[in-house]
Design brief:
Elements lengths: L5 E4 L9 H14 L6 H19 L3 H15 L6 H16 L8 H8 L4 E7 L2 H11 L7 E5 L4 H10 L7 E5 L2 H11 L2 E4 L20 E3 L6 H8 L1
Parallel strand pairs: 1-2, 1-4, 2-3, 4-5, 5-6
Length: 232
């Protein structure tokens, strides 16, 4: 099998921290509504709202904030105080302003690969927020292209790797989500490299495709060069 010439990188929780800000905001949300429901019930209802709204709001902080408001209205039977809605909106704004902290080995891995491979950032979420985080990360100059998409599917990777390389057969996708980053990339014909993160949204959970010849798993991005050496 030919070595990959195009390497796609996921952004959130692959190159920089992201999910932990959602978890902190969920905890704050539970405190705000503690008089109406317990934390476990609120988390379950919020997750249901998020999944229900993905087709309308997409992935990202703005959709998450709207789902918190919707959940607050539902669990209080419409009695949620206006001050609580204000606090939820404030929490969403704070998430949009949070500093970007890159994960270990992210910069080093990109530095090692730039110039040797076509590097493409492939991330889903809100356009403005993802652009902000990329700029704040200081990693933007390492990428030959940036693709901010509404969702990640087999067709997504087929299109991107055809547009920015020689097709999926000569491409690799690296990310922390089996469901979004790894499995659909492998289905498209690319290599899929799984980099587990301690915090992953439950909606992104999936079983590891251990039987797939093009599946690899690494502990951190510092191990990516060893994978490239092995498969080439």
């Amino acid at each position: 099998m030919a070595p990959p010439l195009t390497i796609g990188f996921d952004a959130d929780d692959t190159l920089w921290h992201n999910e932990r800000f959602y978890r902190l905001t969920e905890a704050r949300f539970a405190e705000l509504l503690a008089d109406f429901a317990d934390a476990g019930h609120l988390t379950e209802r919020l997750l249901q709202a998020e999944k229900r709204n993905l087709g309308k709001y997409g992935f990202g902080i703005k959709g998450f904030t709207l789902s918190m408001i919707e959940t607050a209205v539902e669990v209080t039977d419409g009695r949620v105080p206006a001050a609580t809605i204000r606090d939820i909106l404030d929490a969403g704004r704070e998430m949009l302003d949070h500093p970007v902290e890159t994960l270990p080995y992210a910069k080093e891995a990109l530095e090692a690969l730039t110039g040797r491979h076509r590097l493409v950032l492939i991330t889903k979420g809100d356009l403005f927020d993802q652009e902000r985080k990329l700029a704040a990360s200081g990693l933007g100059d390492y990428f030959d292209a940036v693709e901010i998409v509404s969702d990640k599917s087999r067709g997504t990777y087929q299109r991107i790797f055809a547009a920015h390389g020689d097709g999926p057969d000569h491409a690799m996708m690296i990310g922390n989500s089996l469901k979004s980053d790894v499995i659909p990339a492998i289905e498209a014909g690319a290599w899929g490299v799984f980099v587990p993160h301690d915090l992953t949204w439950s909606h992104e959970h999936a079983d590891e495709p251990d039987a797939a010849p093009r599946f690899r798993k690494i502990a951190h991005l510092g191990e990516i060069e060893a994978v490239l050496a092995e498969i080439s």
